């Protein structure tokens, strides 16, 4: 039962992110522990590691500005462990229309560690070359933050 609840929460979070710049970030950020760690693989505008609510909020706000219309499809969610130490692996696809008319498509993996109902660690992995190509396209078409250094 507990694992089903965790899968539902994760699926809902990805659905919320699929609302793009209209997504309610507070509904996602309340899932994180105050000292949570969040990382996104690679050296690019969305890459790097951060810790704590303010830093994580800044990342999600940047994400919304860079990809105001994005769609996630959860492929599979694997949950193991108990309330005090739960491991979640989420396999997903993502797509967004780019300003040059091409479609950004990628596959990703999210690795979460949840303790007592709060995310303590969230690590995201995508094909970095595909993401970097999309970020370059966005920067070329006026989304300057897409070419910024990591937060």
Automatic annotation (TrEMBL):
<dbReference type="InterPro" id="IPR037401">
    <property type="entry name" value="SnoaL-like"/>
</dbReference>
<dbReference type="Pfam" id="PF12680">
    <property type="entry name" value="SnoaL_2"/>
</dbReference>
<dbReference type="InterPro" id="IPR032710">
    <property type="entry name" value="NTF2-like_dom_sf"/>
</dbReference>
<protein>
    <recommendedName>
        <fullName>SnoaL-like domain-containing protein</fullName>
    </recommendedName>
</protein>
<feature type="domain" description="SnoaL-like">
    <location>
        <begin position="22"/>
        <end position="121"/>
    </location>
</feature>
């Amino acid at each position: 039962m507990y694992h089903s609840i965790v899968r539902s929460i994760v699926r809902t979070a990805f659905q919320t992110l699929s609302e793009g710049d209209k997504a309610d970030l507070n509904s996602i950020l309340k899932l994180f522990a105050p000292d949570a760690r969040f990382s996104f693989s690679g050296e690019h505008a969305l890459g790097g590691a951060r810790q704590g609510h303010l830093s994580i909020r800044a990342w999600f706000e940047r994400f919304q500005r860079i990809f105001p219309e994005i769609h996630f499809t959860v492929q599979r969610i694997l949950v193991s462990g108990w309330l005090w130490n739960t491991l979640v692996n989420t396999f997903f696809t993502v797509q967004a229309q780019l300003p040059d008319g091409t479609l950004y498509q990628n596959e990703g993996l999210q690795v979460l560690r949840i303790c007592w109902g709060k995310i303590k660690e969230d690590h995201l992995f995508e094909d970095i070359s595909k993401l970097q190509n999309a970020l370059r396209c966005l920067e070329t078409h006026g989304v300057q933050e897409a070419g910024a250094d990591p937060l």
